[in-house]
Each structure stands twice: as structure tokens, then as C-alpha cells.
Specification:
single chain; 7 strands; 5 helices; alpha/beta; 34% helix; 5-stranded parallel sheet
């Protein structure tokens, strides 16, 4: 018999703040997602070009060095391979009024609760409320860890 193995949804996380990037990536990993990270839009674009796998969702910081959020988002929207990939923008400065719609599903103002972000990821990837794949890490523990506010300015 041949069984299909379901792959975890792939999230491309584009965030220049190392601590924030690692915190979000760790939480996504604990929640059962495959996480790819990039420090700016140029790295994210390079990842998209070399990987045969299309991400299920992109988490995009707005203020980035090298290639910023608006430039990356414009490139993404103009490429038919990726124009339908949903994007959640994370920003301390941008609002929905300042971000072009393109493929943006949601704008999450920083600081934010990690649990809120993980639940949005679950919604937009169609996986329902995020569950931990590590049996030793209970849902209560995951909620405690993810309940922290992530604030890149602190």
C-alpha cells in the first residue's frame, strides 16, 4: 500500500531583526510548520528563485534593509508564480492605509502577541488553530510561550 505523506505548510519569514526572526521561526517550527527565513526582500526573492517549492504563506516585515517590503511585494505581485501566495505584513510603522493591497491579506502592527500571529498563520494556511508537533510541549506551554508580546524596540 502507498500512503501519501502530508507535508507541513511552508512559511517564508522575511524579517531583518535577528532576535525577532528566530523567535517567530522557533514558534512556527514548534507549531508544526516548515519555516524558511530571509533577512530582507533580496534574500527572500533568491530563495523563491532557487526553491521548487512555493511557500504557503509569506510573513513580511515592512521596514527592511537592501530590498524593503514594498519593493519585494511589488516584485511578488508581478510574478504569476507567486502573486497568489498570501502575505501577512508585520510592521511598527505601516498601516493598511499605507500598504498597497496586492497580495496582502493582513497587516499585523508591531508589537504583537506571538499566539495571535501563529493563529493567523493557521487561518491563512488552512491548518486551523496551530497545534504543537512536540508531544512534550503542551498546548498550555505553547500558549504561554506564544502569549508574549514581540516588540523589536525593547
Amino acid at each position: 500500500m502507498h500512503y501519501a505523506v502530508a507535508m507541513a505548510p511552508t512559511i517564508l519569514l522575511v524579517e531583518d531583526d535577528l532576535d525577532l526572526r528566530e523567535e517567530i521561526a522557533s514558534a512556527l517550527d514548534r507549531a508544526g510548520y516548515r519555516v524558511m527565513t530571509a533577512r530582507h526582500g533580496g534574500e527572500a526573492r533568491a530563495w523563491l528563485e532557487r526553491e521548487p517549492l512555493r511557500p504557503d504563506l509569506i510573513l513580511l516585515d515592512w521596514m527592511l534593509p537592501v530590498v524593503d517590503g514594498i519593493t519585494f511585494l511589488t516584485q511578488l505581485a508581478s510574478d504569476p508564480r507567486y502573486s497568489r501566495v498570501p502575505v501577512i505584513v508585520m510592521s511598527a510603522v505601516a498601516t493598511t492605509a499605507t500598504i498597497p493591497r496586492l497580495c496582502v491579506e493582513r497587516v499585523v502592527p508591531k508589537p504583537f502577541r506571538l499566539r495571535y500571529l501563529i493563529d493567523l498563520v493557521a487561518t491563512y494556511t488552512g491548518t486551523g488553530r496551530a497545534k504543537t508537533r512536540n508531544a512534550a510541549l503542551t498546548t498550555a506551554e505553547l500558549d504561554r510561550v506564544m502569549g508574549r508580546f514581540l516588540d523589536p524596540t525593547s
